[in-house]
Write a structure and sequence with these properties.
7-stranded parallel beta sheet, Rossmann fold, disordered C terminus, alpha/beta, 19 helices, about 600 residues, about 15% strand, DeaD_dimer
Length: about 600
């Protein structure tokens, strides 16, 4: 079956063909006809099975181009997925005139978002917290909405956003079309489906993605700001003939290629802005060994077939497991062995597990090459160049120079050779072991830093007026803690029980606005007029200032370091609520009544 057989409009079929997709995936073949017919759809499929195309293409086909108000709303659990979905809509609609899609997620400037909302967009893609925030402010109107999509609904449940999703669903017009996609179907997700979907037939697709057996797959756990250093180490320490480095954006291809070129690599970039002639020239240069490294995006590298490529580096982890399979398939060609290495930050470990599940193969963690390994590789490479030069070049002129210099300088052969070697290697020093300090490895989930224990004699004496530990502090109510890894501070935020706030509201706001994974948000205690939350101690100053301006339940957080003051609070009777994990929190205060909308 082709996309044209699915009765999609010609502009969409043409865009899909240019993106390199020939036939619809199983979830697309099953969902597109139903959504085109205006039916509701409940789809169960793993990440990487083509879900975005399954709902974006048919909903774009039903779009009214003359209407500039939001017609489609897509809810996604993370800003990364929201951006990816918005980019997919834009790519599919490249031949639809006057089309606008707007991603709305935490961390963006409200000013820019408000300007974009006033200009108008037919498609809104956003995270639940920011969408709900705009609904509360009255800056997002859904009265003309035609369809709403819940993408990765089970992930939104895991992150504690499901109540916000319910509120948003209730704010949409009753006649809108609903599409819900989820990798699993827990009871709460099915309850939402039963409440909001009309006569929806469940589509269940099993992922059949597999990888090439000849490809060795490994990953490196690192922080995002370590990627360039890590890439340089890999390219120095790994054996390969040619390599392709995959990134997410066009601008990243140019930036990384430029930085690698400055380090002496024969490198070029490959992205969607390049015309076909330039693309073909770049590939010819790699085949002819004039280039050793290509930095590329997924779309630009589609169909790339160069036998020399023996190493694929996933500089940015793909959100789609099928994209991962296409990427690593650029190596291991013509029966050769291939290597694929994936850079993963701690907050991307979920994507790593999704890829492993989809490919049905574990990806082994690796350590970066050490300074000693890089030094040895440089020495061996230089020795090979010397051997090849001695075998293939006429050295008579240079031999006469060496003899003349040895006599004039009154030195030995060894000292003269050492001096010449020193001059020859200055641009890429051979003695580099000490110049490559080990990169700090971020702690994986569940690990804790080992801290030296203090002897009892080193511990401070308990003050006579200091209350005994009884599980309760006289000024703040019961204190319930869990162990957190790394350095954490206790912060105060100016929103509490009287505002109808829940722990899940605070987790969602901070996770989206500060780009902090929910696993790094510690204990939350709710009081009448304010709350406290444990967060990493090293929050950047610009993020901290941004959090001060974030609103939760129409209250500005105005976050500050907690000094223990109880000013304006009811005291011990206020109690507290422990954040014990994702999902709805038991015992949370009821949601404040919402004002009716006109």
């Amino acid at each position: 079956m082709s996309f044209s057989q699915l009765m999609l409009p010609e502009p969409l079929v043409r865009a899909v063909a240019e993106l390199g997709y020939e036939t619809p995936s199983p979830i697309q073949a099953a969902a597109i006809p139903k959504l085109l017919a205006g039916e509701d759809v409940l789809g169960q499929a793993q990440t990487g099975t083509g879900k975005t195309g399954a709902f974006a293409l048919p909903l774009l086909a039903r779009l009214d181009p003359a209407q500039n108000d939001p017609q489609i709303l897509v809810l996604a659990p993370t800003r990364e997925l929201a951006i990816q979905v918005a980019e997919a809509f834009q790519a599919y609609a490249r031949y639809m005139p006057a089309f606008h899609v707007l991603p709305l997620y935490g961390g963006q400037s409200y000013t820019n978002q408000l300007k974009s909302l006033k200009r108008g967009s037919q498609v809104i893609v956003g995270t639940p917290g920011r969408i709900l925030d705009h609904l509360d402010r009255g800056t997002l109107k859904l009265d003309k909405l035609r369809a709403i999509v819940l993408d990765e609904a089970d992930e939104m449940l895991r992150m504690g956003f499901i109540d916000d999703v319910q509120t948003i669903m209730d704010a949409t017009p009753p006649g809108r079309q609903v599409a819900m996609f989820s990798a699993t179907m827990p009871a709460q997700i099915r309850a939402i489906a039963q409440k909001h979907l009309k006569n929806a037939e469940e589509i269940k697709i099993a992922s059949k993605t597999s990888t090439v057996e000849r490809i060795s797959q490994r990953y490196v756990l690192l922080d995002s700001n370590q990627k360039l250093d890590a890439l340089t180490r890999l390219l120095e320490g790994e054996e390969y003939d040619a390599s392709i480095v995959f990134v997410r954006t066009k601008s990243a291809t140019e930036e990384i290629a430029e930085k690698l070129g400055a380090r002496g690599y024969a490198v070029a970039c490959l992205n969607g802005d390049m015309n076909q002639a330039h693309r073909e020239l770049t590939i010819r240069k790699m085949k002819a060994s004039q280039l050793d490294i290509i930095v590329a995006t997924d779309v630009a590298a589609r169909g790339l077939d160069v036998e020399r490529i023996s190493l694929v580096v996933n500089y940015d982890i793909p959100y789609d497991s099928e994209a991962y399979v296409h990427r690593i398939g650029r190596t291991g060609r013509a029966g050769r062995e291939g290597k694929a290495i994936l850079f993963v930050s701690p907050r991307e470990r979920r994507l790593l597990r999704t890829i492993e599940h989809a490919t049905k193969q574990p990806i082994e963690q690796m350590s970066l090459p050490t300074g000693q390994v890089i030094e040895q590789r440089r020495i061996e490479s230089f020795r090979e160049q010397l051997a090849q030069t001695i075998e293939t070049q006429n050295l008579n002129f240079f031999q006469e120079l060496v003899t003349d210099w040895r006599e004039k300088l009154e030195t030995t052969d060894v000292d003269l050779a050492a001096a010449l070697l020193f001059l020859a290697q200055k641009n890429q020093p051979l003695n580099v072991a000490k110049q490559f300090p080990e990169l700090r490895q971020p702690h994986a989930r569940g690990e804790r830093e080992e801290r030296p224990r203090r002897e009892r004699s080193d511990r401070p004496e308990r003050s006579a007026d200091r209350p005994e530990r009884s599980g309760e502090r006289p000024d703040r109510g019961p204190r319930v803690r869990r162990e957190m890894k790394g350095d954490y501070n206790n912060y105060r935020i100016e929103v509490g029980k009287e505002h109808g706030v829940r722990a899940g509201d605070i987790v969602g706001a901070i996770a989206n606005e500060a780009n902090i994974d929910s696993q790094f948000i510690g204990n939350i205690k709710l009081f009448d007029h304010f709350s406290t939350v444990e967060l990493p101690a090293n929050i950047p100053a610009e993020i901290f200032q941004h959090l001060k301006k974030v609103y939760v339940r129409k209250q500005k957080l105005n976050i500050s370091i907690d000094t223990g003051s109880t000013t304006g609070n009811a005291g011990p009777a206020a109690g507290g609520e422990k954040r014990s994990g994702p999902g709805p929190r038991p015992g949370a205060a009821p949601r404040a009544p919402r004002k009716p909308r006109d």
